């Protein structure tokens, strides 16, 4: 294991993002289509929030594949905006933060993904899954 290894070694660089004016239907589509659980919400390239699949699940029955549920989801989604549902106080990390530092943040906080920003610009995302995969490679 490399001591002081930067998080940029293991972060995902191609980040799926949402704008706070996007619909919750679009968010659900992105979660399911890309098989992801966290999406940074941006204004340009600046992170303004984070939406998790769990946040969306609290509103609807998004994981039920019954066709009849689509109408219910659309009705519920029309009552809320991404800006209302997203977490607004987002902890971001720098690409030079060490993997250990980021692991400590994730281990002590109640979230499982952190945007990676450089000069206020989103350049990646790191998740608990990224950390587990990194650790597994060490064995």
TrEMBL record:
CBS domain: residues covered: 11-69, 86-139
Task: Name the keywords, alphabetized.
Answer: CBS domain
| Pfam families to which the protein is assigned, alphabetical | CBS
User: At the top level of its lineage, which domain of life is listed?
Assistant: Bacteria
Q: What is this protein called?
A: CBS domain protein
